[in-house]
Amino acid sequence: MFSYTKGSDLINLCHSYDLTLPQVIIQADKEESGLTEDEIKMKMSNRLEVMRTSMTIGIEQNLTSKGGLIGGNAPKLYAYAGQARSGLTMAKAVAYALAVTEVSASMGIIVATPTAGSSGILPGVLRALEEDYSHTQDDIVDALLVAAGLGRIISINATLAGAEGGCQAECGSASAMAAAAAAHLAGGTPEQCLHAAAMALKGLLGLICDPVGGLVEVPCSKRNATAAANALICADMAMAGIQSFIPFDEVVEAMRSVADAMPAKFRETARGGCAATPTARDFATALPPLPPN
């Protein structure tokens, strides 16, 4: 009864049953998983704690990634956040996004939201908003449910894999999920949440996946940062009454078609984009060979 595969399905269910987005997503999950509402929310709460821990570690420890390409950027930006021209909340969201990517690249524990390569975007946005707007634990869990629902739709109708669709599928999807979550936290309607997600994904449509040396470090970490900022801006546009001319479902379809047309060198093969620059090639050449299986 509460099954959905499109954003339009979510909107219709919300209006048909006079429910919020999180309530519809919980009902659908209950039907699919057999779990109770309390069990679903507990699972989300547990994941939220992992996210919080990874952000704290990334901010408080001067980490160095396994590849040596990133590390220490999150503490730098966090210390500077009070002076940031982009504003405190934005700078904190970006710093937290960097923190998760640095934990991930140093082989720490993170939550893939929706992938490891895009794992900083949603946590960074949610933690900054939680701190600066006094949202409760229940508020953040509901926002996570909204993000999960949008991620599910993208996974069904397009892809979340960089190897299949480029970084639009990873950072683009995560930014869309975070934008919808942020709009929900701001009191947005289901329609506003989907407009926010559509604008966020549109802004990153066509983004390639080009990891230097094949490592999920550069440009991945700083893409998480800019995608977090993109999510907040798109949520603000939606809350101001700005609508996406292209509906969310059609943007997802567009992402799928772009993914299908994207050359292999731009899909996580480290053969195009930033990975093909002279600096990146010099770095990759100096990497030690992989151990035998």
Question: Which helices and strands occur, and which strands form pairs?
Answer:
Elements: H1 7-17, H2 21-33, H3 37-60, H4 73-80, H5 88-105, H6 121-133, H7 137-157, H8 162-165, H9 167-185, H10 190-203, H11 220-239, H12 248-261, H13 278-286
Can you tell me about this structure?
This protein is an all-alpha fold. The protein has one domain. The protein has 13 helices and no strands. The protein has helices at 7-17, 21-33, 37-60, 73-80, 88-105, 121-133, 137-157, 162-165, 167-185, 190-203, 220-239, 248-261, 278-286. Helix 7 (137-157) runs antiparallel to helix 9, helix 9 (167-185) packs parallel to helix 11 and helix 10 packs parallel to helix 12. The longest helix is centred in the first third of the chain and has 24 residues, at 37-60.
The count of domains is 1
Query: How would you state the average pLDDT, rounded?
Result: 97
Gross geometry: globular
Major sheet characteristics: none
Observed structural traits:
about 290 residues; globular; single chain; mainly alpha; about 65% helix
Question: Could you provide a short overview of the structure?
Answer:
This protein is 64% helix and 0% strand. The protein is an all-alpha fold. It is globular.
